[in-house]
Amino acid sequence: MEKRTDKNSYTLLFAVAMVVIVGTLLAFTAQVLKSKIEENRRIEKQQNILYAMGVNENEGTNVNFIPTDKVNTVFKQFIKKQIVIQGSKISENDKAYLIDVKAEQEFAKNPKNTRRLPLFIGEKDGKTFYIAPIRGKGLWDAVWAYIAMDKNMVVQGAFFDHKGETPGLGANITQRFFMDDFIGEHLLDKNGNFKGITVLKGNADPKNVDKLDNEVDALAGATITGNGVSAMLKDELKLYEPYFKNLK
């Protein structure tokens, strides 16, 4: 005699019940943790913005951010203004750091849409910094960065991160020896035209002494990641060029 549990209908009902139960638990957990997730996102973005403009607790060759319990206060201390650029429109928005760059990129794929570009204006040691969040594609997945510039689009600091680049190779974009190479690099060429910065294999300036060549030395064994970073810097930061032209 066939057992009830051997029937296909029982298996189907059991599977449906498990999906409903697990889905409900996941939805409940997501709702409970929503505020914590948003808080962690805020902390991370503020730490990255501050890091790019040189507000961090670095020691030696390590990358050390402002501690989580201090970052909100420090962010308010150094970031004097947050703006959103949307076409010719520029507006202040103290929540600009929460703008999802990836979502804005997707939004702008429709030529009818105008993307929002967040920009953070900070002050430290009598200098003004303009920090732009950018996003691109590495070898395996997304790469992103926060680039701090002066009014002439000369890089004053950088923070890079990634989702899935190869450890010891492309993942080294998060190391200080790579990020620090960008400090002092010009995004404009000698004629004042936007050129970006190329992560170049076989760069003739491995110690990165020449800051006017629009190049930094590539990471060993990470050509595709380097190409992705180069494209990100050129394509994303060029969008900010009109704003910097108006500063002059």
Could you characterize the architecture of this molecule?
It is a single chain. The mean pLDDT is 89. Helix 1 (8-52) packs across helix 2 (71-78). It is built from 6 helices and 8 strands. It is globular. A 6-stranded antiparallel beta sheet has the order 2-1-3-4-5-6. A two-stranded parallel sheet has the order 7-8. 35% of the residues lie in helices and 21% in strands. A hairpin with a 2-residue loop joins strand 3 (117-124) and strand 4 (127-137). The protein is α+β, with helices and mostly antiparallel strands and 248 residues long. The longest helix has 45 residues, at 8-52. It has a domain at 79-247.
Task: Chart the SSEs and their pairings.
Blueprint: H1 8-52, H2 71-78, E1 79-86, E2 89-92, H3 101-107, E3 117-124, E4 127-137, E5 142-149, E6 155-162, H4 176-179, E7 198-200, E8 215-217, H5 223-237, H6 241-247
Parallel strand pairs: 7-8
Antiparallel strand pairs: 1-2, 1-3, 3-4, 4-5, 5-6
